[in-house]
Amino acid sequence: MPNSPRSPQKSFAWFGEAARGGHARAAYFLALSYQNGAGTDPSGEKAFQWYRRSAIGGEAMNALARMYAEGDGVRLNLSNAYAWNEVAGVRG
């Protein structure tokens, strides 16, 4: 993840600003930050929300599928996991 080695909090803030502005890749990095606790407290639920927004924007489909498959931040749902993996495969 492209976090600043000096300030993960700054990276988190910039990812958040860009993600709220609709930038799908920034939403992916914001989700990673929440998942790993980089610059913020870890939160599976918030990570899931941002992965979902990113996937809808064309990024992070495999990450979203993994969260559904593992029940991380969301209720386990293998149908949704399969569907998002299929979409990711079709999109390349």
Give a verbal description of the structure.
The chain is mainly α and 92 residues long. 68% of the residues lie in helices and 0% in strands. The protein is built from 5 helices and no strands. The longest helix has 14 residues. The protein is globular. The mean pLDDT is 94.
Question: In angstroms, what separates the terminal alpha carbons?
Answer: 21 Å
Low-pLDDT residue spans: none
Range of helix content = 55-70%
Give the SSE string: HHHHH
SS-derived structural category: mainly alpha
Average predicted confidence as pLDDT? 94
Shape: globular
The total beta strand count reads 0
- Can you summarize the main beta sheet? none
Number of helices: 5
Beta-strand percentage range: under 5%
What is the alpha-carbon Rg in Å?
A: 13 Å
Jot down its keywords.
68% helix, mainly alpha, 92 residues
Summarize the structure.
With 92 residues, the chain is mainly α.
List strands and helices in order, with pairings.
Layout: H1 8-20, H2 24-36, H3 44-56, H4 61-70, H5 78-91
Helix pairs in contact: 1-2, 2-3, 3-4, 4-5
